[in-house]
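RECORD TYPE: protein structure
NAME: Transmembrane protein
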Amino acid sequence: MTVTPAQLLRGLAVVAFLVAWALLAHVGSAGEGSADLSVLLGVTPIMAAVGLLLWRSRYPLLAGGGNLAMLGAIVWLWPTLRQNVALLFFVQHLGTNLALGTLFGRSLLGGGEALITQLARAVHQGALSERKRRHTRQATLAWTLFFLGNALVSVILWLFAPPSVWSIYANLLSMPLLAAMFAAEHIWRLIVLPPEERPSLAQVARAYRLHGKQTPPANPS
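PREDICTED:
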């Protein structure tokens, strides 16, 4: 796959943004820097996730009212949040990993297809070998354990380690750990699947976009 200069620049910009976000979150969790900026960094992903869930509901009034109520609650709680920045980032990190672990894990229950199997079926237009189905189900389980393991380690460090140690793990190591997991899955895919059953990065990205638009149920039964 050929990468254009524009795509390369966009990728570098995303990486720079994520690095800056992680550094600012670490500084905020340590009680340094601007408390208002730290709170803004902490609540933005939470508000975005809740807002997206509300807007995807079938009840516009509920969605609009819920978003307004959330904004009002953030404004009302802002002074309290400024005094509990580290706790805010802990809730953000824990909630993100639990949500992703649940998203992957619930697709393994019942008679439905695993989440990565659904994505692979979108890439291959519905045709999957038994080997591919087995691999994608195992990969879904691996991602489930990865996110739930992240959540567990985060809780243990929050309870028993100094805040700086928890912040290093949650804020500074999250992206490297995620990248390492992607790399490990890619190497595993190269080992167990033949070339014709390995999707390109562009195909994977397109499958994620299609899945996000269609949101098929994890367990159709």
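COMMENT: Residues 86-214 form one domain.
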